[in-house]
Write a structure and sequence with these properties.
- The chain is an all-alpha fold and about 130 residues long.
- The protein has two domains: about 60 residues, no CATH class; about 50 residues, no CATH class.
- It is built from nine helices and no strands.
- Helix 1 packs antiparallel against helix 3 and helix 5 crosses helix 8.
- The longest helix is centred in the first third of the chain and has 18 residues.
- The termini are far apart.
Length: about 130
Amino acid sequence: MLWNIYFAYFHSQLRYGIILRGGTKESIKALHIQKKVIRLITCINKYESCRKKFKENGILTVTSVYILEVFCVIKKYKGELKQNCEIHEHNTRNKYDLHTQSHNTSLLQKSVLHMVVRLYKRFPLKIKQLDNFN
């Protein structure tokens, strides 16, 4: 019953808008709250690690949910996002990275698509070359 309540209420609230607030202090607070909820449901004390409980129950942490949502945004906007190899013909090691637009304003720097591209650049090459995301 508690797991149903967790997924119906807390996890849905966690996923709502996570792509907009993913790298902020609020996401760290959400992770602490998520750990408290998991500890409450699984009856472990506050000094014990929750890592095993997340794995045992198939629950994604806030960070993992954010990365999953980034993949979903990349898949949704893959027609609009260009790779570096489409912009220039140089054979560079970053040719499979998504191309970042030049900008002079902090508004564009804080935009969702810009943050998605910056996070995507940190993924390993194997993930970048998957057919679902290129």
